[in-house]
Amino acid sequence: MRYVRFGALAVGFLCLTACTRTMENASSVTDLAEVSVFAMDTYMYLTAYGSAAETALAQAETRIAELENKWSVTLETSEIYAINHSKGTPVSVSDETSSLLRFSLDMSEQTDGALDCTLYPVLSAWGFTTGSYQIPSETLLAQRFAQTGYEKVQCNGSTVTLPEGMQIDLGAVAKGYVGDLLAEQLRAQHVTSALLDLGGNIQAVGTKPDGSAWRIGLRNPFSEETFAVLEVADLAVVTSGGYERYFVGEDGETYWHILDPETGQPARSGLASVTIVGQEGRRCDALSTALFVMGREKAEALWRQAGDFEMVLVTDTGEVFLTEGLEDVFSLQQDYADMPTEIIRR
Ligand code: ADP
Ligand code: MG
User: Could you give the percent of the chain with pLDDT greater than 90?
Assistant: First the structure.
């Protein structure tokens, strides 16, 4: 019961594998380049315009593979694998890995522990790491739960020390960080118009070639449809939702892949999806996961306090709450015109 996870998606993407060839033909006319790759357990679609686009996207693809090789939990040669199998001994990692880990730990502090990169043993008890889903017994859950806690992870310079039995997984922030690194690389290569869709993590570089904003579709968490569109330039748009990966247990309940680090159970905060808009993909990614766990009230409080991001919350009951900074760039799709929508003000 796994699926393609489109939280936010670029409106207008119609093709998967057939794109590249079609676009190659088109590229000589429009300088459009497009690449689709499967990496980090998701489909990624990269689109860029301009004379530098084709070379830049080829290099972006290489970069994605490099980062996946560092951060994969399952690949035996990855740095995360080395940390997870270190049996408590210090491990030396690359700057990128230590920086991502430090960032994740910092975001855990900022979100009162709602984000926690040490949940892997619990996620695997639920089968979210393999797709063999099950409701874990209380004994198993308690045993796995004891092996978590981001405060126990030490990251000093390039050295990481993880207590024996614990395992980390940076999946909740990695794609956001990849988006930041790719956008930086593209800009350095003089690409001024690109849209990176990293499995629902959208990173926009500049505007569309004609100078207009990118139109990013937000998925209705209760169906496969786009319920609203955000118009953005040079920003990241990241969505987390329970619908992305879930199973229905023998008890008829739905269990999804975002866990509450306080209980080890799927987070039930009254939200069905959280979309974060901001400058940094990694921050948006961390916040989308954390605010899904925290729920609307705490999310609003953090929004007021932080001041550097905007958000769209969809509740379990299908209400939409969006922060005032998005008021002018958010629009409901025609079929959703009467969806109850409220603006959150400062
Ligand atoms: P996705 O990567 O599925 O698009 P997220 O960025 O929200 O969405 O990350 C969810 C992933 O992070 C889960 O699949 C799981 O591996 C892990 N995870 C689940 N709950 C948490 C949590 N509270 N903190 C950190 N990581 C989590
Ligand atoms: Mg996330």
Answer: 90
